[in-house]
C-alpha cells in the first residue's frame, strides 16, 4: 500500500514517469483496481497509450461496474486513433456515470466524421459544451516551434507548417467573445485541438457571426433564404394606398400572406408591433421593433377621435 500512496503523490505532483514505476511495484504486490487505474492514467500522461489500454482493461476485469475503467481505456484507444472502439467505451462509461464522457463522445463522433470526408475537407471542425467551444484544425503540424496559435476575445488565428512543409493558415471571427486567459490548445499527431472558454455559458448557434449585408435589404435573420424587405415594405405601402375602406378583407389577406411567408423575425416584429401598439403599428422590421417600447416611450398617437385606455377600463 505504501508504494501505491507514493505513486499517487507523484502523480498529483505531475511526476508521471516516476509514478509509473511505483504503480507497477504496487500492482506486483497486490493487483488492485485503484493501482491499475493509477497506472493507466500515468501511462496516458507519458504517451504510452497501448500499455495504458492494457492496464485499464485489467481494471475493468476487476470491477466492470466502475465507469473510470472504461473511460481510461477509451482515452487510450482514442489517442491510438481506434475511434470506433473508443466511442463504445466512452458510451459505456456514460451509461455507468451520466455526464462522465459527454464531451469525449462528441469528440469521437467529430473525428469519425472527419475520416469519411473526401479530399479537400474543411480545414477545421468544431463542437461545444456548456462552457467551452472546441475547434479541431485538420492539419499535421511538423513541430510546435512552427505552430502559431493566437487566441483573441473575438477571433482565432492559426499558422502551421505541416509535415509536407506547406503552410496551413486559418482565421476565424468568433460569433461570441471568449476568455483568452482560460483558453488553450494541444498539438496532437494528426490534428490541433483548441479549447476556447466561453465568456458566457450559452449555446452557440454558429461558430462565426452571420454576415449582414451593408445595404438595408436583409434584416438579421436565422433564415438562410434572403428577402428584400425594402421591396416588401414598398409593396405594402402601395397596397395600403390602393385599398379603400371597404377593402379591409383584401388588406387582411395581404397581412396574412406576409405573416405566413415571413421568417421568425418577421412574425415576431408583426406580433409585437401590432399588439403592443394597440393595433396602430404593424411592422415587419424586427431590427427596429425589438428595441421599441410601444406601451411606453415609443407609444404612437391614437387614431383621430380615439384615446388610449387600459384593457378592461
UniProtKB/TrEMBL annotation:
Keywords for this protein: TPR repeat
Record's compositionally biased regions (Basic and acidic residues): 289-313
Name of this protein: SGT1
Repeat region (TPR), residues: 33-66
Domain (CS) ranges: 119-208
Family affiliation: Belongs to the SGT1 family.
SUPFAM superfamilies associated with the record: HSP20-like chaperones (SSF49764), TPR-like (SSF48452)
UniProt source species: Blepharisma stoltei
Domain SGS residues, every copy: 218-313
GO molecular function, one term: protein-folding chaperone binding
Gene3D superfamilies membership: 2.60.40.790, Tetratricopeptide repeat domain (1.25.40.10)
Matches recorded under InterPro entries: CS_dom, HSP20-like_chaperone, SGS_dom, Sgt1-like, TPR-like_helical_dom_sf, TPR_rpt
Region feature (Disordered): 279-313
